[in-house]
Amino acid sequence: MVTSLDERPCPRHPSISTRLRCSKCGTPICTRCMVETPVGYRCPQCAGLSGLGWSDVPTPLLLRATLAGLAVALVVGWLWSRIPDWQFYLALLLGFGVAEAMAWAARAQRGRALQTLGVLCVAVGLLVSRLLLLAEAGSTPGDLVRIFSDARLWTLVQVRPIPDLLFAVLALAIPFVRFRVTR
């Protein structure tokens, strides 16, 4: 029989009394902060939810991960400018390469900061590939603005609007999903 003595305030929500306990550590949990897992209800810490925000990944790891992601993005961007017909495979290489290099450098941490930086690194790789293709065609970066109005420039930079957009979205989505914090 449960008595009122078993009720304790939730450490995260002190105004709520609860009889529930984390199945791992025994900490009181209320219905607002409990996390359902395959082995019972757990507190956010035991369930692995730390509410990662921008600053939960240490700055040295963020810097290291960003440098690793940029290195991969620059190499794949250069490679993409050399063999633009392999768009699908290079989009996969860019997305997964950046995400896994960053994950390795950040010691497999996750969070919004890594998501954002991963997407930015992939965008740099995509931009590098197009700027290098423009340079090979004898155009200037200013011509990049005219691409949408002049179909002849599309062929110079190997832009095919629908496939290019799909491959870019694919590459950008990979680090976004890789560093997502699951709740």
Keywords for this entry:
6 helices; two-stranded antiparallel sheet; 4 strands; 183 residues; single chain; mainly alpha
Percentage of residues assigned to helices: 40-55%
Q: Strand order across the biggest sheet?
A: 1-2
**Intertermini distance:** 33 Å
Global geometry: elongated
Tell me the domain tally.
2
Q: Average pLDDT across residues?
A: 82
Quick one: how many beta strands? Answer: 4
Number of discrete helical segments: 6
> What percentage of amino acids are in beta strands?
5-15%
Low-confidence stretches: 51-55
Main sheet properties = 2 strands, antiparallel
Task: Assign the structural class, choosing from mainly alpha, mainly beta, alpha/beta, alpha+beta, or little secondary structure.
Answer: mainly alpha
Order of helices and strands: EEEEHHHHHH
> Radius of gyration, Cα only, in angstroms?
24 Å
